[in-house]
Specification:
Largest sheet: 5 strands, antiparallel
Number of helices: 11
Number of domains: 2
Structural class: alpha+beta
Helix content: 40-55%
Mean pLDDT: 91
CATH superfamily of the largest domain: Aminoglycoside phosphotransferase (APH), C-terminal lobe
Strand order of the largest sheet: 1-2-3-5-4
């Protein structure tokens, strides 16, 4: 038997049998525990009788959009990235037979580390020199990811390489129009400016899509143990990742009001490189021109505003379950859109 308490999203007997057939040296019984849940993919820690730990990833419960929760795609990405310099958990197996667990899932190694979600945790886990080392390694890993030729590791067909920004702007403009709960002139202003000032895409690389400390396992000595959550990964303009992490790289002294509507990140405690230092180090490692980073930051603020507005719309329609503070969602969208306007103005 697996666990005495049933775990939502896990058919323990079936999954145990699959493990025995597909994961070498596993020792039943297995115990399952949900690590992260919510509206994204579900992540479980799996322990066997010998003390070995694994991670199982599956789509969220209920109706899902298959293309947004493609387990085969996510497994393919981490398996391909595994042999590169980018630290990821080892991919151990993929099950696409939905009769086993009602949905596809994949299994990877369990990697020890801390998911740094806020300033308090970062200050407890790392001393100031370790924060500096971790910041440098975050830059190094992103540069290494962007240096990988997707064709050489079997990811050349992960997505279209060209016209990344044009495709993204079209996608999120359509999303905004479909889900907006009110008219917001700043969103229209930014969309028009993004189209008018679109920089030329120089080359194409693997774009993580959600590269931030909250999606990494960090070690106390100041090192990235593994980069997680590859579900938004695609091919395209690598500077999109730079714009995204700059918006999530809060500096010392910034507050929610000055961080552009994004959450205060762990980097707001002393020791981490500043945004300017981050960009210098990245440029030194990659040779890429980051002079138009304000454009990419504007794009990411605007994109996140469209995403949050979609969540707000679903709450207002009553399709997200429990009630939420919709005023807070609306205020966040307003702040993100305003920050996007500010970044666009820096291009002039």
């Amino acid at each position: 038997m697996a666990d005495d308490e049933p775990i939502k999203g896990i058919r323990a007997e079936n999954v145990t049998a699959w493990f025995e057939s597909n994961i070498p040296d596993v020792k039943p019984p297995l115990r399952f525990a949900l690590i992260t849940g919510g509206h994204s993919n579900l992540t479980y820690r799996v322990m066997d009788a010998a003390g070995n730990a694994f991670v199982l990833r599956r789509p969220p419960l209920g109706a899902v959009i298959a293309t947004a929760h493609d387990m085969g795609r996510e497994h393919k990405i981490i398996a391909a990235v595994g042999p590169t310099a980018v630290p990821v958990p080892s991919a151990l197996g993929l099950c696409q037979d939905e009769s086993v667990n009602d949905a596809p899932f994949y299994v990877m190694d369990y990697v020890e580390g801390h998911v740094l979600t806020d300033v308090d945790l970062a200050s407890r886990v790392l001393d100031e020199p370790a924060r500096s080392r971790l910041g440098e390694h975050v830059i190094e890993v992103l540069a290494d990811l962007h240096a990988v030729d997707p064709d050489t590791i079997g990811l050349g067909d992960l997505g279209r390489k060209e016209s990344y920004l044009a495709r993204q702007i079209k996608r999120w403009r359509t999303q905004w129009e479909k889900t907006k709960t009110r008219e917001l002139a700043s969103m229209e202003e930014v969309a028009a400016a993004l189209e008018a000032h679109m920089p030329e895409q120089i080359g194409a690389s693997i774009v993580h899509g959600d590269y931030r400390l909250g999606n990494m396992l960090s070690l106390a000595e100041g090192k990235v143990a593994a980069v997680l959550d590859w579900e938004l990964c695609t091919l395209g303009d690598p500077l999109a990742d730079i714009g995204y992490i700059m918006n999530n790289w809060t500096e010392v002294g910034e507050t929610g009001a000055t961080a552009g509507g994004a959450a205060i990140s762990p980097t707001a405690c002393p020791g981490f490189p500043t945004r300017a230092e981050f960009l210098v180090r990245y440029t030194e490692r990659t040779g890429r021109d980051v002079s138009k980073v304000s454009y990419y930051r504007a794009f990411q603020y605007w994109r996140l505003a469209a995403i949050v507005e979609g969540v707000l719309s679903r709450y207002l329609k009553g399709v997200m379950g429990a009630a939420a503070n919709t005023d807070a969602f609306q205020a966040q969208v307003d702040a993100l859109a305003a920050s996007a306007v500010q970044m666009i103005q820096e291009l002039d």
